[in-house]
Structures are given as structure tokens and as C-alpha cells.
Structure to design on (236 residues):
């Protein structure tokens, strides 16, 4: 049986890293992208040491031409694209009320979280339509369903990701392409650690908003992505 191929953007750290490892463990060819070439190549070598095929590509999802190159080169190398995980995203400089946020910060969030997701969906869909379909998983957030104090700009971009996911799912449902979103709560990632270190939140206060009274792990979310992307119960 021909191996399936997945692209994970922002795949060198955090949720993306756990997701890439999970797909590799379950027999996929894995392409990870990111802006940090050092960490990306280190992870690629780690995954390849397990016997899986893995490639790292330096990509800035804010640049449309980078995303086009990512998908084109993946299809050229592995024959087709089966799963695309739109994981790359940033939280920006949170900690300010809406009226105190900077325009520069907002534009960076829009370019990364919204346009980056749009570019990924657009060109993954085009590639998948040529080969009979596939699956796209977007990383949204509980911020895509709620209003969070001191995170207005981030919240707005994640609402946009939810909207793009809903529209894409409806438009391509009859063409063999499944489009879903995962909406994590507070997960133990470098982004959250930076917010805690900056004094914006405390780990205890964040954990208390969850019914289980704990922060989520990257493996928690990666398992959900694997299930959504493949629609069978894959495990890390």
C-alpha cells in the first residue's frame, strides 16, 4: 500500500512537533515546515532515525510563494498530498486591552494566523482535488469561540480560522476533502510559558478554567489532529 503524506506547518516545536511524530509513527511520509531551520532539521533527523520518511522545509506562512513552494515540492517528492495540518500560528503581544493594542502587532497576527491558514487551505485544496481528495486540519483555539480579556487581537484571528474552516468544509464536502478544526484550550507550549513568564497569567489560574483542573499537553492535541486528519483512531 502506498504511504500517505502529511504536511505540518509550524511542525518543529510544540503541538506541531508532537503531531509530526504521531503521523510518522503511523506510517506517513512527513513534511514539516517552519522558520527555524536548526530546530526543523533536528526534528527531521530524529524522525528519520525511526525509519520514517521526513523532510524539513524552511517556510514563512505569511508569504504566499513559500506556501506554494511547500506544497509543490511535497507533491513532486511524494506523489500527492493527503493531509495538511495548518498548525503555524502566533499569539502576538497579549496583555493589553483592545484600545491599547498596536496596529503592527495586529497586522502580524492577521498575516500569520489568518492569511497563513488561508494560503495553506487554498493550495492544499488545489493539490488534493487533483488526486481525489484529502484532509485539512486547522488549528483554531478556544479563543475562536470565546472572548478573552487582554487577547482581543489573537481572539479575532482565531475566530477567522473557525470561519474559514466552516466555509471550506461546506464547499468541498462533496469533493472528497474533509476540513476540520481543533480548538485547544491552554496547552503546555513555549507560547504559553512565555505568557506566564511575562506575568500575564499564572499556571494555576489557567489550569483552573478547565474542568480537569490541569493544562493540556501537546500529545492531547496531536491525538485529536491525527484522528481528524485520518478519521481512524491513530495514536501517538
Amino acid at each position: 500500500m502506498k504511504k500517505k503524506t502529511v504536511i505540518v506547518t509550524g511542525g518543529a516545536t510544540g503541538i506541531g512537533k508532537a503531531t509530526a511524530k504521531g503521523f510518522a509513527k503511523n506510517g506517513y511520509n512527513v513534511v514539516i515546515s517552519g522558520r527555524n531551520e536548526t530546530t526543523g532539521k533536528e526534528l527531521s533527523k530524529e524522525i528519520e532515525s525511526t525509519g520514517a520518511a521526513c523532510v524539513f522545509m524552511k517556510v514563512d506562512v505569511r508569504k504566499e510563494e513559500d506556501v506554494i513552494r511547500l506544497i509543490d515540492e511535497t507533491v513532486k517528492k511524494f506523489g500527492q498530498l493527503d493531509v495538511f495540518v495548518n498548525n503555524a500560528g502566533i499569539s502576538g503581544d497579549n496583555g493589553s486591552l483592545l484600545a491599547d493594542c498596536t496596529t503592527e502587532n495586529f497586522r502580524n497576527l492577521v498575516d500569520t494566523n489568518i492569511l497563513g491558514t488561508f494560503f495553506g487551505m487554498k493550495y492544499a485544496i488545489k493539490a488534493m482535488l487533483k488526486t481525489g481528495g484529502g484532509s485539512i486540519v486547522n488549528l483554531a483555539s478556544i479563543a475562536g469561540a470565546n472572548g478573552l480579556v487582554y487577547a482581543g487581537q489573537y481572539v479575532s484571528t482565531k475566530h477567522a480560522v473557525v470561519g474559514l474552516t466552516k466555509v471550506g468544509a461546506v464547499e468541498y464536502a462533496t469533493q472528497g476533502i474533509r476540513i476540520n478544526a481543533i480548538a485547544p484550550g491552554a496547552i503546555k507550549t513555549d507560547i504559553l510559558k512565555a505568557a506566564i513568564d511575562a506575568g500575564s497569567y499564572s499556571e494555576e489560574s489557567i489550569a483552573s478554567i478547565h474542568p480537569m483542573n490541569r493544562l493540556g499537553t501537546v500529545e492531547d492535541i496531536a491525538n485529536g489532529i491525527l484522528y481528524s486528519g485520518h478519521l481512524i483512531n491513530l495514536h501517538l
